[in-house]
Amino acid sequence: MEEDKNLRARLGDDGLTVINAAEKGRCLVADRDFYAGQTVLEQDPYVAVLDGDSRGNRCDACFKQSPALKRCSACKFVFYCSPTCQRSQWKIHQEECKVLVRLSTEQKRPTLLLMLRLLVKRELQATGVLPVTALDNYEIVRALPTHFSETGDERLVMYAQMAVLIKTILNARYAEDVKEITKDICRISCNGHTICDDELRPVGIGLFPVVSVINHSCSSNSLLLFDGKHAVVRALGTISRGCEVTVSYIELGASTNSRREALSDQYYFHCKCPRCTDDSEDGLYKDDVLEAVACLDPACESFMRLSNGSWRCMSCGSSREPNEVNKLSTEAEGMIEKANRLQAAGDLHGARMAFQQAEKLQTELWNPRSVKLMRTRDLLLRVYLSLEDWDLALHVCRLTLPAYETAYPGSKHPLLGLQYYTLGKLEMHAGSVTEAVRAYAKAFDILSVTHGSRGEFVRKLRNELDQAKMVASSLHATSPRERS
């Protein structure tokens, strides 16, 4: 098809090609060597929308934060940071604005808004109002899989109801039949990307049809991050010519069974990547430890596996009954839910106490490298930071690092880098300058690859690392007598 030829020609300029594989369908393959930190692919979204928490804090055009946002006077829903951004979106927004004024707050859900923009943009490109390029056209969107037949009935009914609403509020110029709109919603569901900021906090969703050609691997060789709403795929290591480019679609801090379940539910495939199929003793150990129960013997450094109906330690042979494990797990989860409610209500002190109780329960239950314990400690860390309890924040942050290093193998994961960055700041605040330099250096080693060495975020980190080194050097150059 002509669009595929144009796409391949355009990607060829960037050292990439698209091939069709029997089990995977389309694959993005390197046509030259790429090295760690190098940009493999960039793309602006075909369409994108901010999420509810980011609306009013970020520009609807560029997704950047700005203290001087201006709201559309008609729909009073979208915000722009500059006249340039407003003009860039005007042809689409003048059409969607007429719809937005008629929608209730409850109806303005991100997926529905994304579909509205998709249908409007498709029509404007079809009529020549908006330009069409090799990387920005509806035909490459339409080529994305819908997984319509694999989608469960309950989910399809929900999508169909949304399609009916869209057809009702849009005039016939934009809205096709309900089934076709439902298929487009399916495309968004299994091909859309959560757009995140530099610290991997979600800010919106977008449809990047070329990026969506990249297949998943739990041991991927590249990473997708965003600059505003601009998608950037970077190599995590050397990608040799002829190798497939892969990214991760899901949160990787989980066991093989949990990852495969998430992928099957959202993307309708059974993962057979090297990490998921590693049945070596070392591979099984690394997988089990992520969700394993702690041994009851404090002197034992191993953990328990579920065997013959009970949890049994791999090393000392001690056991725990499933009922005891389930009881502790349920109590901890209930306490976390309570803590989240208190935090949402603004009661940080109450949330702190609830998270502390949850952590105590989970420390009795899960092994120290468990991702569940790690995530609870992360939630507790955020509360400590909000309360400016720096000493406890430092203590908890230190506890999380072994679990982070286990959950994100390969060392070049941005969440690991960001955790080291947080640790560096806390060590510096505590006056532990040498430890701060170590943490900052580890963060820089990771984030300069994942975020790009020239980006503003990494430049800021590099400045903090250099300042910490200067302080450390000054302290080392000063004798104990002079410091006293």
Question: Please, could you describe this protein's structure?
Answer:
The protein contains 16 helices and 16 strands. It is α+β, with helices and mostly antiparallel strands and about 475 residues long. The model has no long low-confidence stretch (mean pLDDT about 90). About 50% of the residues lie in helices and about 15% in strands. The strands form six sheets. Strands 13-14-15-16 form a four-stranded antiparallel beta sheet. A three-stranded antiparallel beta sheet has the order 3-11-10, with no helix packed on it. Strands 4-8-7 form a three-stranded antiparallel beta sheet, with helices on one face.
CATH fold-type name of one domain: Beta-clip-like
**Which second-level CATH architecture of one domain applies?**
Beta Complex
Major sheet attributes: 4 strands, antiparallel
Oligomer: single chain
Approximate shape: globular
Pick out the low-confidence regions.
none
Cross-sheet strand order for the largest sheet: 13-14-15-16
The CATH superfamily of one domain turns out to be SET domain
CA-CA gap between termini: 77 Å
Got a strand count?
A: 16
Tally of individual helices:
16
Write down the Rg.
25 Å
How much helicity do the residues have? Answer: 40-55%
